[in-house]
Predict the structure.
Amino acid sequence: MEAIKGGRIRSEGGSYLHVSFSSEPHQELAMADVAFVLTTIAVFALVALVAKGVTKL
């Protein structure tokens, strides 16, 4: 059985595994999501401009 103490998990073998409870990865994922959404909007806007230009030909 494992024991948790101070952010560390101790296995039966006696070795420790450090577990981080930081909220930074959530913020990084949120920023990645925002970047993805903005990039997707920009690509669709570019496709719309190209399509509008093609229809004028």
